[in-house]
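USER: Write out one fold?

ASSISTANT:
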Amino acid sequence: MTSTIFIGNLPFDTLEEEIVEILSEAGNVVWFRTVFDKMTGRSKGYGFCEYNNHDQALIAANTLNNRIYKARAIRISLSDRHLQG
């Protein structure tokens, strides 16, 4: 069963490919999505990532939280939110 994490404090110019590369250190990333403001089209500075299983999500939350990306400490925590494709 897949498991989702929340990624916050992302720079507004985040490149999804770079974040996925970082998140892949914890396991196989099923998908990653940055959340955008519907009115402006600008990143809201957070997103969600789904892993193959809960263990990989736990590894991400425990080892990648506070990782520095573009001079910002990204925040990672387990999420109960599941986005529809």
Observations:
- The longest helix spans residues 54-63.
- The mean pLDDT is 92.
- Residues 17 and 32 are 9 Å apart (CA to CA).
